[in-house]
């Protein structure tokens, strides 16, 4: 392991690997410390949905961030294929939201009108049109709204490809290397201590998701980031039973090119408990029955759970911390880690290498929360 480097990134999930990839492309010496295996925690547990448009009626900063992040994935997929030969299965198959209540119908009408006015591609479908498009879906819905430009990606493959591309560009990636402490001198964080040694760096980036709050506590920082469990299951569907992401009753069905269809996900505030429960599976099965009864007889391939790094407003905390000149946070991505991971990497690279503070960082700035609350700055 390198003793000194330009940037040390803590966390080897989609966010940390995206940051390493962008920095290594720019010629920065970067070292990534991952407590387990790369891309094995929440990055592996996600469904890979890339939603930059679903349900949007306000086209302000949040929409701009999500829309740009979705489009970045299209170019990233090709870049990674050329660099590594790995296919991350970026699919622009669209997203279909099923509508069950008068309130949902009215909301869809408002969304359709607003997005049409913006020149976005969006379709309003009757029950009959929806069932012709997707016969496996429930006939109990009243109609649907479709966003044909929405996409999804195989998140596991994406994490592996980003790690491999970073390694080929010269980044040092270390699995089984948990960060146990941040090393501080005055107003600077000068490195990271692992169980075996210390790594010194000009800049330290914290990108270890749900574990970030505990890590930075020794600096006097209080992060509003906590684990939120999400349980999922996968069924075997060859040929595909549904042909796009389907959303309804606050859960989703996601088809993949490899013949899997995912059903997810629960949102549970249970701390760091990552086990799959009967209660969670029952919620997923009931949602699958209400959304797509045509898949209920298919064999279950696997079940799993992951810990999302939740934040109070659902947006990540990305950027420097006042009072610690060389500490960068990239945490709290909650349900949008796959969507926003590559964009986070680009934003951090622009900040550290180009000296450019993107307007997106104002939306994501960590100081929108009282980080030093109850602490005394050293």
Short account of what is shown:
This protein is of the alpha/beta class and 378 residues long.
Your description of this structure?
With 378 residues, the protein is of the alpha/beta class. It folds into two domains: 169 residues, FAD/NAD(P)-binding domain (3-Layer(bba) Sandwich); 142 residues, D-Amino Acid Oxidase, subunit A, domain 2 (D-Amino Acid Oxidase, Chain A, domain 2), CATH 3.30.9. Strands 1, 2, 8, 9, 10, 11, 17 and 18 form an eight-stranded mixed beta sheet that branches. An eight-stranded mixed beta sheet has the order 5-6-4-13-14-15-12-16. Helix 1 runs parallel beside helix 6, helix 1 runs parallel beside helix 9 and helix 3 crosses helix 6. The protein is globular and about 65 Å long. 51% of the residues are buried.
Task: Tell me the layout of helices and strands.
Blueprint: E1 4-10, H1 14-25, E2 30-33, H2 42-45, E3 49-50, H3 61-84, E4 95-99, H4 102-117, E5 123-126, H5 127-133, E6 143-147, E7 151-152, H6 155-168, E8 172-174, E9 181-185, E10 188-193, E11 198-206, H7 212-216, E12 226-236, E13 245-248, E14 251-255, E15 260-264, H8 278-291, E16 300-310, E17 317-321, E18 324-331, H9 337-354, H10 360-364
Parallel strand pairs: 1-2, 1-11, 2-8, 4-13, 11-18
Antiparallel strand pairs: 3-7, 4-6, 5-6, 9-10, 10-11, 12-15, 12-16, 13-14, 14-15, 17-18
Helix pairs in contact: 1-6, 1-9, 3-6, 3-9
CATH class membership of the largest domain: Alpha Beta
Q: In the CATH hierarchy, what is the architecture of the largest domain at level 2?
A: 3-Layer(bba) Sandwich
- Tally of separate domains: 2
- What's the number of extended β-strand segments? 18
N-end to C-end Cα span: 30 Å
Low-confidence stretches: none
Structural class: alpha/beta
